[in-house]
Amino acid sequence: MKRREGPAGLPDNDPGLPLSSSLPSPDSPPLPSPLPRSFYDRETETVALELLGKQLVLVREGVVRAGRIVEVEAYLGPGDKACHSARGRTPRTAVMFGPPGHAYVYMIYGMHFCMNVVTEAEGRACAVLIRALEPLANLPEKTRGPGLLCRAMGIDRALNGHDLVGERFFVAEDPAFAGGTVVSRPRIGVGYAEEWTDRPLRFYLAGNPFVSKP
User: Fold this and answer.
1) Eight-class DSSP state of 125
2) CATH of 3-23+35-205 among 1.10.1040.50, 3.20.20.70, 3.40.50.11500, 3.10.300.10
3) Residue 2: partners with Cβ closer than 8 Å, 6 or more residues away
4) Residue 154's Cα: distance from chain center in Å?
5) CA–CA dist 44, 135 (Å, integer)
6) Mapping DSSP to helix (H, G, I), strand (E, B) and coil, where does residue 158 land?
7) Contact in structure between 34 and 170 (CB atoms under 8 Å)
8) pLDDT tens string for the chain (214 positions)?
9) Given CA atoms 8, 12, 18, 23 in this order, what sign does their dihedral have?
10) What is the pTM of this model?
11) DSSP E strands: which ranges in 20-125?
């Protein structure tokens, strides 16, 4: 959720691609259940740490795409100088000020999308950026980095504001995840954020080959 990446004057109403209403066929394996809203309605760093090892799921045109979350960054609201909401409530950041458990999707460099989950109580304007996925189903291996993972998953501006507690696009438990060691490092690309630059708010699974940057 790096503030400097959005080019000035970038429109906030990119139409994106509509999310298909078609779910997998009855013969497909059952979809996992979305995490409840209470998962997101907690302190942002806690949510960020517990997102590691969960799976991000999107169903489009009946195809299930899924990846294990292996790297995230926490953004702690208006007081965090690296956070989009530090600029206050705008049409672009309105989703962040809303209820927890919604997707905040924005464009960077006029060509790539980034996906965040909104955390904490309404009005707190905090979020967690999903930085990297380990492919689980119907994904290419280019999922290292927020722009690449959104391209692989098919995440675009049409999903901005999507309720992650609903169907078709959500975060779920991953019963195959065996756990791992978590590493904390400063966030990437936030050198402008003054005293917030070196805060260790990027978390990733040690040794995972899909982490975007050690």
Assistant:
1) -
2) 3.10.300.10
3) 82, 108, 129, 187, 188, 189, 190
4) 13
5) 25
6) helix
7) yes
8) 543 333 222 233 333 344 544 556 555 678 999 999 999 999 999 999 999 999 999 998 889 999 999 999 999 999 999 999 999 999 999 999 999 999 999 998 778 999 999 999 999 999 999 999 999 999 998 999 999 999 999 999 999 999 999 989 999 999 999 999 999 999 999 999 999 999 999 999 999 999 998 8
9) positive
10) 0.88
11) 55-60, 63-75, 103-108, 112-119
- Domain borders along the chain are 3-23+35-205
Q: Say which residue the tokens 């065996």 belong to.
A: 178
Q: Which two tokens stand for residue 38?
A: 């209470």
In total, the chain counts a number of residues equal to: 214
